[in-house]
Amino acid sequence: MFPKRPPMGFNTWNTFGENINAKMICETADAMVEKGLLAAGYEYLVIDDCWSEKERDPVTGKIIPDHVKFPDGMKAVSDYVHSKGLKFGMYSCAGVRTCADYPASYGHEFLDAKTFAEYGADFLKYDFCYKPQHADGPSLYRRMSLALENCGRDILFSACNWGCDDVHTWIRSTGAGMYRSTGDIFDNFKSMRDIFLSQIDKTGYTGSGCFNDMDMLTVGMRNRGNVASTGCTDVEYRTEFALWCMFASPLMLGCDVRDMDDATLKTVTNPCLLRISQDEACRAPFIVHEDCDNLKNTYARLLTNHEIAIAMTNFTDSDSRVWFALDELGLPASSGKALMLTDAFTGDVIGPVKDGYGVPVDAHDCKVYIAKVVDA
């Protein structure tokens, strides 16, 4: 399946880990609709690891759902998710066992792809644990991609090899629609910051058809769940979400959407940020201005309608001024042009801005603007 824009949805892993069941999935589907998340674009509901029995069916050889967690089978859950207007996602692994030690798809790719299709899957997250040492990533992901392409159902292939094997250089050739380029995220500011900074040299490896996945969002987790750590402030969560949008990463929510608070809902449905994320041109972001340690950088991304998304970050622990010159953006003084900036968080309009722009940015915060080029 060829995604034209970064996929959006929810994944069970960050909050629930192995503690998943049909009731929770159906309640999450209800919440995604009732809270307006589906209307905002979050269409995939993905079940991660730990959904199956510990061994394959001895007769059919298929991976089968845990009979306690999913007593009516996986197709019943899928049907309910689809009845809400959502798409249904599942999980497997390129190795002989999944990361949590359940049956995986190595050597069973075509059978498993057919099984996922029978369950009504629209999305497959494909992990990278417990693979034989001689088996290389490109071969394993091409193998499952071919299986999915021939299973009789459109299934978005989400490759999750954690950035190993220079995945960004070959993954598009496998047919994957998105790919993980990082290790696992945890619910703390340092984890989010380090993951984001690790992607600065990979900005050119995302775009329509195959999106660089910086991992599932921790926004709104508040130190609860499977990847809990210290938690983050609302400001830090807002920074995370804004930068995932700027870098065109898939937006897979990881908090418990059933009790999502107002601040989190406001962040993840921010229309300006989602407009940046889902811009139809899917152009890569680039650095406009950087300091010596990349902690107070300005990034930009050219949008459709001749607009420019601009993000100014302050990853330091102190409030600071962040600045860039319009010349660095491509607007020298000789152009006779200036910028009109619309604040993505407040809606305030600033400008016309000539020569350069600087603004105070609180510690761990960011400023995001949608800019228009105007006559100076």
Named CATH topology of the largest domain:
TIM Barrel
Helical fraction:
25-40%
Cα(first) to Cα(last) distance is 45 Å
Topology pattern, helix = H, strand = E: EHHHEHEHEHEEEHEEHEHHEEEEHEEEE
Supply Rg.
21 Å
What is the approximate shape?
Answer: elongated
Tell me what portion of residues adopts beta-strand conformation.
Answer: 15-25%
User: Any idea what the CATH superfamily of the largest domain is called?
Assistant: Aldolase class I
**Architecture per CATH nomenclature, i.e. the level-2 architecture of the largest domain:** Alpha-Beta Barrel
Low-pLDDT runs? none
Strand arrangement in the largest pleated sheet: 8-6-5-4-3-2-1-10
SS class: alpha/beta
Q: Round the mean pLDDT to the nearest integer and report it.
A: 97
Outline:
The chain is α/β, with parallel strands linked by helices.
Give structural attributes.
376 residues; alpha/beta; TIM Barrel; Immunoglobulin-like; 2 domains; eight-stranded parallel sheet; 11 helices; 23% strand
Overview of this protein structure:
The chain has 376 residues and is α/β, with parallel strands linked by helices. The chain has two domains: 8-277, Aldolase class I (TIM Barrel); 286-375, Immunoglobulin-like (Sandwich). It has helices at residues 13-16, 22-34, 37-40, 74-83, 109-119, 137-149, 189-197, 234-246, 262-268, 271-277, 326-329; strands at residues 8-11, 44-46, 87-93, 123-127, 156-159, 178-180, 187-188, 211-213, 228-231, 251-253, 286-289, 298-302, 307-313, 320-325, 337-343, 349-353, 356-361, 366-375. The strands form four sheets. The chain has an eight-stranded parallel sheet. Strand 2 (44-46), helix 4 (74-83) and strand 3 form a beta-alpha-beta unit. Helix 2 runs parallel beside helix 4 (74-83) and helix 8 (234-246) packs parallel to helix 9. The N and C termini lie far apart (45 Å).
